[in-house]
Amino acid sequence: MTVMDVNDNVPEWVMVPSPYLAVVSPDAPAGSLVYKLHARDGDEGNNGEVEYFLSDGGEGRFEVDRKNGQVRTTGLPLQQDREYLLTVVAADQLGSRSVPAVLSVVAGSRPPQFSNASFTIALAENTPAGQPFLVTPVVSFQNKPISYSLLINPSSLFSISAETGEISLTRPIDYESDQHRYLLLVRASEGLESMSSAAEVCAFVSITFSN
């Protein structure tokens, strides 16, 4: 008896971070790589092979390689600082299609992008001061050093490494006397002040039981 795989899955996007952002030089020649699409299909064999398509947007200035998902320039002129929105889909060999995804491409510079728009963490009350308990990574579109800072820092209880984005406590916390929830706002800056982004961090203090 031969068991055949049923085409019961649709391609799903697996690119990170989201939303999908990219930059390209306004002077980029034809064929310049802008972004790499990636989707997975849970079906086996040929049913699980995925192809990629540009369904809308881009004004003819971008093309998608249907086999490898690479988004490249076509050679038509790009307008400085213009944002181009590309709607893309992934399909398997039997025609099942993914949810459309939108790729934002700016012909110029754009601020760094946090891996998450917000972060949530449970912070044990016995966490030592100075010990990093969270890193807030970002994607740099300019390939320049990132500088981190805290825009919101309740009671100056937290510290962040300007170079790595590691967050730590400035003093020990106590579940009985301190707040149980803290909201921080982290900023990542890249060169000019205008090239910055922010993300929220919500820290919940968890009680530590002693024997």
Automatic annotation (TrEMBL):
Superkingdom field: Eukaryota
Biological processes annotated in GO: homophilic cell adhesion via plasma membrane adhesion molecules
Transmembrane recorded as keyword: yes
Keyword set includes Transmembrane: yes
InterPro entries named among the record's database cross-references: Cadherin-domain_protein, Cadherin-like_dom, Cadherin-like_sf
Record localization: Membrane
Pfam families, A to Z: Cadherin (PF00028)
Entry GO terms, CC: cell-cell junction; membrane
Positions of the Cadherin domain: 16-134, 142-201
GO molecular function terms noted in the UniProt entry: calcium ion binding
Sorted UniProt keywords: Calcium, Cell adhesion, Membrane, Repeat, Transmembrane, Transmembrane helix
Protein name as it appears in the record: Protocadherin-like wing polarity protein stan
Organism: Takifugu flavidus (sansaifugu)
Taxonomy of the source species: Eukaryota, Metazoa, Chordata, Craniata, Vertebrata
